[in-house]
Structures are given as C-alpha cells and as structure tokens.
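Can anyone check this?
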Amino acid sequence: MRILRRNMSCQPSCVYQPAAGIPKRVTGVTGATGPQGARGIPGTTGPAGATGLTGPTGATGPTFAPAKGYFGYTSSTPTTITGGSSVTFNQISAVSGLTYAGPPVSQVIMQNSGDYRLAYGVVYSSAANSELRIRVNGVDLGIGHLNIVVDTNGEVSTEVIAPLQAGDAVALVVAGISITLTTIGTSAFLSVVQLS
C-alpha cells in the first residue's frame, strides 16, 4: 500500500508525493507477441477504376487479293473431245494468282491455297454417254460431275466450291465416249475464283 502524506497547508494545486522510503512503481518487461488472430471477412469490392487510355492503332494487315481467271474456247470448226481428254481453252482473260501454259490451256495451276469456286460448262452439237468433270492433280474431284447420255445441240454447266492448295493443277476433262463442241460462240469455259 502506498502511503501519501498531505501537506495541509498546500493549495488545491499541490501534487501529492509518496511517503519517504516507499519505492516507486517500475514498469515490467514487455511480454512476447501473441499469435496472429484469425483473418477477418473480406470487405466489399471497391468501385471500378477509370478506363485507361486507348492504345495505338496496330499496323494494317495485308490486303486479300483473290486469285481468279476465266478460260474459254471458241472455234469455227467442230471440235470433238474424246473420253479421258482435257478440254483446252484458247480465250483467256482477267487472270491473277494463277499460272498456265499456252494457249491452248489444258490445265490451270493455283498459286495460293484456299477455297475456290470453279464454274464450268460446254455447249455441244452432239454428245454420247459422256461426263464432264473437274480433275485436280490427275484425280477426279468427287463432286460436280455433269452427265450427258445421248443428246444433240445442248449445253450443261455447274459450279462447285473446293479447297485447293498452292501448286494444285486443275483441268476440265471429258469421261465416257465423246463430246463435240458447237461452233457458235463460246463452246466451253472454266472460271476460277478464290473465295478465301
């Protein structure tokens, strides 16, 4: 117990002192830090920050230049194409991205890989059990065959879309017996247009 002596003559502002001979209180050594408490519940998400500045415009990509070409055949004399032979063309226009030898042109070679639309047909004075086909690298395309049983003074045409690779050689061929082309106007044609 601490004993205080009071100076009776002291004014209210006086400071009381411990009695002589009683030691002052000494602060003890700080204890070890206790274990970390459990993690509190996460607070609510703050508002989104402001939108950043727009980045610089990227470089312009390459322009798509589709391969294309039109190949036709005209003749003032009847032309008979027997089974297994290619239709040849002597009229060529608007060609880009394609290579060929001639005229006469018997096959067209792709310079670019992609999907192509191939349109083709013939106008004939006579045909006997024949078929018109597209052949790629010597192999018949499995679609777009045009059948002609026995007929005179007619025409057939169609178009197909097929994936082709750079270097592929495309030809229009006759299978079966034969087709004799007309002498009026364009009697055979092949149009090649790259789509992608």
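Reply from J.R.: I decoded it. The chain is about 0% helix and 45% strand.
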